[in-house]
Amino acid sequence: MTKINRIAEVLIEHNKRNTDLINLFDVSESTVSRWVNNKQQPDILKFYKIAEYLKIDIRDLFYKTEWK
Question: Does any domain span residue 2?
Fold first, then answer.
């Protein structure tokens, strides 16, 4: 499976937990679990709000794309 987002890593880097996103978006634990495990992607607005919450560049939430 291709990893798309770095949500799990970024949360750790900023000493945050999944529960912070659960509370921020008022979504279920399973929803956030799917996001951090790259089984499902949040919509772009949620990526923006995560970046805003963590005060980071939105691009930091994604793995760098390397084309061959």
Answer: no
1 occurs within a structural domain: no
Provide the CA 41 distance to its chain's centre, in angstroms: 8
Tell me how many domains the chain contains: 1
The pLDDT value recorded for residue 40 is 96
Sign of CA dihedral 64, 21, 2, 10: positive
How far CA 13 is from CA of 6, 21, 26, 30, 67, in Å, comes to 10, 15, 22, 22, 27
pLDDT of amino acid 1: 66
Query: Distance (Å, rounded) from C-alpha 31 to C-alpha 21?
Result: 10
pLDDT in tens, 3-41: 899 999 999 999 999 999 999 999 999 999 999 999 999
Q: Is residue 56 part of a domain?
A: yes
